[in-house]
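Sanity check. The docking grid for NAI depends on where the pocket ends up, so I'm generating a full predicted complex first rather than guessing from homology. Inputs follow.
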Amino acid sequence: MAVSTESPRQRHKVAVIGSGNWGTTVAKLVAENTKAHPDLFEEDVQISPVINTYHENVKYLPKIALPPNVVANPSLLDAVKDSSILIFNLPHEFIGNVCRQIKGHILPSARGISCIKGVTVTEDKVELICEYIGETLGIYCGALSGANIANEIANELWCETTIAYNTPPCDRRSENGTNGDAAHRDARGQVSKIDLVPVPQEYPPVDHTALHKLFDRPYFTVSMVSDVVGVSLAGALKNIVALACGFIEGHGWNMTAKTAVMRRGMLETIHFCQEFFPETIQEMTFWESAGWSDMIVSCTSARNWRYSKMAAERGVSLYEIERTELNGQKLQGISTTKEVMSFLKARGVADKYPLFKAVEGIVDGTFEVKNIPVLFRQ
Ligand SMILES: NC(=O)C1=CN([C@@H]2O[C@H](COP(=O)(O)OP(=O)(O)OC[C@H]3O[C@@H](n4cnc5c(N)ncnc54)[C@H](O)[C@@H]3O)[C@@H](O)[C@H]2O)C=CC1
Ligand SMILES: O=C(CO)COP(=O)(O)O
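Predicted complex below; grid placement will be based on this.
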C-alpha cells in the first residue's frame, strides 16, 4: 500500500476504560506522558466511568490528586468514540460486557493495550484477555503486565512493568513509503482472522517507541517485548499461585513454604504456556517484570495473597472475605482459578497441574491447605 511521506497531522487520543485502583493509576501516569509528548498525543486522557469533582477517585484510589488532563467522562461510548488508543483496565469479569457495549462505536483503526490480569474460557478454549478484546472489537490489542501495586505507583514509588505488543505488519511503515503487507498473526502464531484496518498515515505509528513514550515514567520503567502470550498468562496465572501462598501463610507456614509454592506455581505456569501456546511462547519472558517479579510481589504483598491469608486465618471462605472486605473490588484469582480449571478439566489434563487443582479445592472447601505438601511427594 502506498503511503504519504508527510509528517503525521493527527495526534493520538487516549481513553482508559475502567476507573478502579489500577485504571485510575494508569490514567494518571499516561496523562503525565500525553502532556510531555504533545507531538504524539492529545493532552487530555478520557477515563470512564467517573472520578469526582475534586479530581480524585475517592472509592478506588483515595488521596491521590489526578492531573487536570485526566478527564472523567460519564459516558463510556463518548469516551471511546474517537480515541485511537484504548487502554483496558478493569477486573476481567467485566470485559465481556464492556466490549459488547463499545463494539461498533470505536475507530476501526484503534489500537488497544490490556492491563487486565485474567483469561476468558469458553467451552474448552482459553483466550488471553487481549486476544478476546481484539477479536471482539476487530482491532489489534497488546498487553501490559508486571509487578505493579497500584497504590505504590500512584505514589510514584519506582517499579518496572512489561508491555507485549506485536506491531501488526499493516502498521509497519517503511522508509520507502509503503506499509508492510505480510499477514498479521495472532497470539498462537496463526494468520489472524481479524481484517485489521491500518493506523492511518495521518497519525504517528503505534509501535514500541510510541507505547514506551505513553507508559514509561521515571517511577515506572517499561520493557517492550513481543510475547503477548507469556506476558498475559504469567499475569493471569500468578493470581492462582498468590491464593496458594496466602492459604499457606494463613495456615501458619512461612517464607520457605511460600517459595516452594511459588516455584511449583511458576513451573505449572510455564507448562501451561508451553502446552497450549507452544508456537509463540518465549521462556525469557518469565524473567521480565511480568514473570518472576510479579510472582514474588503477588505472593508477598498483593490483594489475592492478603485476603486468602485472611480467609485461612479466620477459617472462612474466600468468597465471604471478598464480599465483606473488598469494598466492591474483585480478587482476580478466584475466577481465574475456576476458569483455568474448567478449561483443564475439559481437556482431561487437570492432574498435570496439581497446585492449580489444589487451589480450586481449597476455594471450594474440598481440599485442605495442610495437604499441599502431599501433592509433591515423589
Ligand atoms: N490494583 C492493582 O494494584 C493492580 C491491578 N491489576 C489488574 O488490573 C485489573 C483491574 O484491577 P483494579 O483496578 O485493581 O480493580 P478494581 O477492583 O479496583 O476495579 C473496580 C473497577 O471495576 C469497575 N466495575 C465494578 N463493577 C462493575 C460492573 N458490574 N461492570 C463493569 N465495571 C465494573 C469499576 O467501575 C471500577 O472501574 C485487574 O485485572 C487486576 O488484576 C494489575 C496490576 C496492579
Ligand atoms: O497484579 C498485581 C501485582 O502485580 C496486583 O495483584 P492483586 O490483584 O492481588 O492486588
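Relevant for the grid: The mean pLDDT is 93.
Also worth noting: The CA atoms of residues 337 and 369 lie 16 Å apart.
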